[in-house]
């Protein structure tokens, strides 16, 4: 039977080993399993206890990112872990990868970095694949037209042992972004705007396919920023159909197919795009022209406003609490709000283009007195590329800290945190209470808005945004 299918259905159909029934989820074959130090120790212990091996070690790729300090190594070569637990997690993954024959991009590797940054960069992430990782931002890989799910530690064990995952078939949600983004408006503004529109539960139970002219016009880095935050809208995954932009970005990367294999692969990838007439369970239209520079004002990524607009009224008790925590009031503007810390990094915005965007602002002005700015490349490779074009100097000369690759201040588990009550403008994806340290108040924004906050010492709108609003 042939009928028009969506990108999601095509990947799903190709990977179903046993279809789902009313009582049992489907068994889905997994092409690539990415692992990091936080969500794997128990999974490997379980394997050992049950005398199981890793089914396809060559389809597992490991990195160190969450617990790794971003300060340079000590003179004796050891790393300045912030807690014993962090050191233990890293040592455990090193041991487990060694024991089970898994490639670890650990300390000293040119391919180490945030798991969702290195998969694509290494060419391991490819269109049409099923990809899992014990990490909620796995949807990032959907930017390549891969079906990428975040999974729990128990499932990490299942996939290690069987290379398969039990999964209920999700529904599909098409987000059609029509028209063109205004000049100066980026992928981060777009995804924050989308989450603001559909809400943090708007994608629940669905795989989102981002479509439309404005999506096709995005670079791969920007597509990753968009797909990365799919989970913040509650979605199981986010997808964008692969196209010429995707192929150009992937070609020549270490793990990408080469020679005749490359040509065959591209031909197959070309078939993946949703067929004309394919049906989605839901469709949402977004007008790209309406997207303004967007920031969060609350404690979840759905509480967003265009940067120049006033904080809206709290709609419920939870939002009232969020405003209290953030020390913001309905009706106030966030422009001019004093900023203590600025963080540029995370799997949302730590790629070379993000660093360039921030550096472009800092080239003209130093970081304001009293503001601490941390710039953390997503991978060792990005760090090297940024240094090759002198971005590290721009940041350092402006007074920012230039760090080693890792998750850093996106999540307060590696030593990079802010102080209680401090206001952080962060390019990461989560602004939950205490996420960046106890009592820390987080405003999510694009690299450009973050850098502007750093140089002005307060939340500042770009000139062009004010012109648009006028
Ligand atoms: C530590 C990990 C389990 C967690 C996740 O799943 O997302 C982290 O990456 C995060 O961003 O909160
Ligand atoms: S950068 Fe942040 S969101 Fe991304 S994987 Fe690391 S902790 Fe999670």
From TrEMBL:
Choose any GO biological process term that the UniProt entry carries and state it.
L-leucine biosynthetic process
Keyword vocabulary terms for this entry: 4Fe-4S, Amino-acid biosynthesis, Branched-chain amino acid biosynthesis, Iron, Iron-sulfur, Leucine biosynthesis, Lyase, Metal-binding
Q: In which pathway does it act?
A: Amino-acid biosynthesis; L-leucine biosynthesis; L-leucine from 3-methyl-2-oxobutanoate: step 2/4
| Span of domain Aconitase/3-isopropylmalate dehydratase large subunit alpha/beta/alpha | 9-457
The cofactor required is: [4Fe-4S] cluster
Q: HAMAP family in the record, alphabetically?
A: LeuC_type1
Under which name does UniProt file this protein? 3-isopropylmalate dehydratase large subunit
**Organism encoding this protein:** Frateuria aurantia (strain ATCC 33424 / DSM 6220 / KCTC 2777 / LMG 1558 / NBRC 3245 / NCIMB 13370)
Q: Taxonomy-wise, where does this protein's organism fall, top ranks first? A: Bacteria, Pseudomonadati, Pseudomonadota, Gammaproteobacteria, Lysobacterales
């Amino acid at each position: 039977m042939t009928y028009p299918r969506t990108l999601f259905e095509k990947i799903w159909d190709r990977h179903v080993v046993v279809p789902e029934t009313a009582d049992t989820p489907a068994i889905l074959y997994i092409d690539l399993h990415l692992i990091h130090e936080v969500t794997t120790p128990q999974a490997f212990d379980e394997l050992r206890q049950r005398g199981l091996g890793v089914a396809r070690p060559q389809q597992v790729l490991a990195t160190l990112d969450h617990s790794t300090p971003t300060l340079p190594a000590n003179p004796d070569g050891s790393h300045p872990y912030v807690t014993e637990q962090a050191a233990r997690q890293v040592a455990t993954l090193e041991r487990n990868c060694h024991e089970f024959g898994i490639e670890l991009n650990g300390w000293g590797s040119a391919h180490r970095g945030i798991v969702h940054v290195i998969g694509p960069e290494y060419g391991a992430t490819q269109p049409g694949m099923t990809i899992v990782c014990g990490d909620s931002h796995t949807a990032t890989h959907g930017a390549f037209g891969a079906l990428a799910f975040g999974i729990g530690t128990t499932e990490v064990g299942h996939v290690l042992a069987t290379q398969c995952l039990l999964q209920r078939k999700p529904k599909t949600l098409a987000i059609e972004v029509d028209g063109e983004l205004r000049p100066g408006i980026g992928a981060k503004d777009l995804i924050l705007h989308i989450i603001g529109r559909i809400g943090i539960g708007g994608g629940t139970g669905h795989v989102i396919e981002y479509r439309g002219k404005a999506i096709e016009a995005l670079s791969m880095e920007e597509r990753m920023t968009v797909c990365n935050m799919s989970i913040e809208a509650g979605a199981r995954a986010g997808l964008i159909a692969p196209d010429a932009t995707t192929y150009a970005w992937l070609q020549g990367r270490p793990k990408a197919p080469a020679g005749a294999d490359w040509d065959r692969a591209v031909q197959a990838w070309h078939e993946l795009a949703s067929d004309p007439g394919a049906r989605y369970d839901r469709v949402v239209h977004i007008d790209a022209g309406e997207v303004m520079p967007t920031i969060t004002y609350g404690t979840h990524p759905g509480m967003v406003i265009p940067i120049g607009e006033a904080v809206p009224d709290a709609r419920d008790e939870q939002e009232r609490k969020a405003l209290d925590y953030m020390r913001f009031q309905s009706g106030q503007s966030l422009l001019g709000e004093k900023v203590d810390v600025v963080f540029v990094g995370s799997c949302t915005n730590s790629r070379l283009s993000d660093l360039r965007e921030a550096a472009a602002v800092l080239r003209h002005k130093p970081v304001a007195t009293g503001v601490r700015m941390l710039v953390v490349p997503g991978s060792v490779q990005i760090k090297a590329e940024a240094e090759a074009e002198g971005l590290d100097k721009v940041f350092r000369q402006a007074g920012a800290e230039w760090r080693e690759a890792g998750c850093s201040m996106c999540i307060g588990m590696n030593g990079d945190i802010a102080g209680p009550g401090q206001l952080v403008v962060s390019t990461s994806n989560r602004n939950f209470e205490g996420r960046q340290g106890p009592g820390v108040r987080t405003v999510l924004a694009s690299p450009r808005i973050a850098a502007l906050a750093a140089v002005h010492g307060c939340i500042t709108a770009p000139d062009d945004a004010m012109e648009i609003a006028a």
